[in-house]
């Protein structure tokens, strides 16, 4: 019988719930064993343990020691993620950064179009991602300094562009504002806008912010446009064609491409969407390796440790430039 990956999750917050759901679904299909959850907050770990039938731990090190796990999903705040450099020293281990924008079907089509040469040489592009203000003001108010709109959401589009271009960053220039959230007692950047020159000569502007007004129709506004010598490709990732306005509320739109639920006749939930599929790909790949497959044969969409390192380097450069008021940063010097 083939082996299914034994998993523990660190972090039972907002996105930890998505990992709990994805691994529960994998478990239902015999593709994973979801054993444990670790969270520093008692209520959160105990609720997750009850909802998903897993063992709760306060300390993830105790979870690792006791559960004989094959894999760990880290879903802690941005500043507390595993040290990528450390993982770089273990090429025999499967390491995936959950940059799930690669799994959005529109982005898969864009990547294929570029790879087939249909846009010609990529000259420039623009990506934007903006959250409504409750994300920065309320959800993550308790996060210590160590995140920003560029770490939280901008990084996803930087990874997407890096994946589309198959090229490393060369230089960055970034500026930002720090006034609105500060006036509300939250010491985060409101927004950062960056220009990134890649080594293949393409330049992309990436805007990331998290102060959109509460009346905005979705929790996230986002999109990308890419212009090459032979064509243009534009994706509005926020407006996917569905809207609703319910009594007492403002107009709302939906991104079912990110997350969706269907039900089986016996009442089980089937989770879908690129936010779930990327986590599932990790389990499929882990199972391939656990059952004797060669880690070097894996050809998934996922971002590996080198990708994570390159994208993090661009984001570090962006923050350095913004902190210095807009200096040009040569990424090779970082
Ligand atoms: N919320 C989203 O929409 C979203 C979407 C995509 C990605 N993410 C990413 O997911 C990660 C987690 O975000 P979130 O929204 O779940 O944040 P969150 O604040 O809701 O949850 C983080 C949880 O981690 C726990 N935690 C912190 N340190 C810990 C430790 N050492 N051991 C065990 N538990 C610990 C906290 O108690 C908290 O419950 C972040 O990197 C975020 O960028 C979030």
Task: Give an overview of the whole structure.
There is one protein chain. By secondary structure, the chain is an alpha/beta fold. It folds into two domains: 5-99 and 260-303, NAD(P)-binding Rossmann-like Domain (Rossmann fold); 101-258 and 309-333, Dihydrodipicolinate Reductase, domain 2, CATH 3.30.360. 34% of the residues lie in helices and 26% in strands. The chain contains ten helices and 15 strands. The chain has helices spanning 14-28, 42-52, 60-67, 84-88, 105-115, 133-139, 149-165, 180-183, 274-290, 305-323, and strands at residues 5-10, 32-38, 55-57, 71-74, 122-132, 169-177, 191-198, 203-212, 220-228, 232-236, 243-244, 252-253, 260-263, 269-272, 328-330. Strands 10-9-5-8-7-6-15 form a seven-stranded mixed sheet. Strands 3-2-1-4 form a four-stranded parallel sheet, sandwiched between helices. A two-stranded antiparallel ribbon has the order 11-12. A hairpin with a 5-residue loop joins strand 13 (260-263) and strand 14. Helix 1 crosses helix 9, helix 5 packs parallel to helix 7 (149-165) and helix 7 (149-165) crosses helix 10. The mean pLDDT is 94. It binds nicotinamide-adenine-dinucleotide. Nicotinamide-adenine-dinucleotide binds at residues 10-16, 38-41, 44, 60, 75-78, 80, 152.
